[in-house]
Fold this protein.
Amino acid sequence: MKKILEVIGTLVLVVGVCGVLRELTGWFRFMGFTRYLTENVGFLHGRELFANIVIAVVGFAVLMIADQLRKA
């Protein structure tokens, strides 16, 4: 369970950080699926940067939760 959470947390954190960089600089065009996550949701229109920051924070939180789990 710990490894699964670590992998999921890492992926979500990387996606969030790449989304933030894409919004600020225009880089990481290959990470275009973050655009689909943030721009196709009605209440997030115009708030893509904030949504990507939240995605990165959620990924970091999942990593912290995985770190707190004991090895079974």
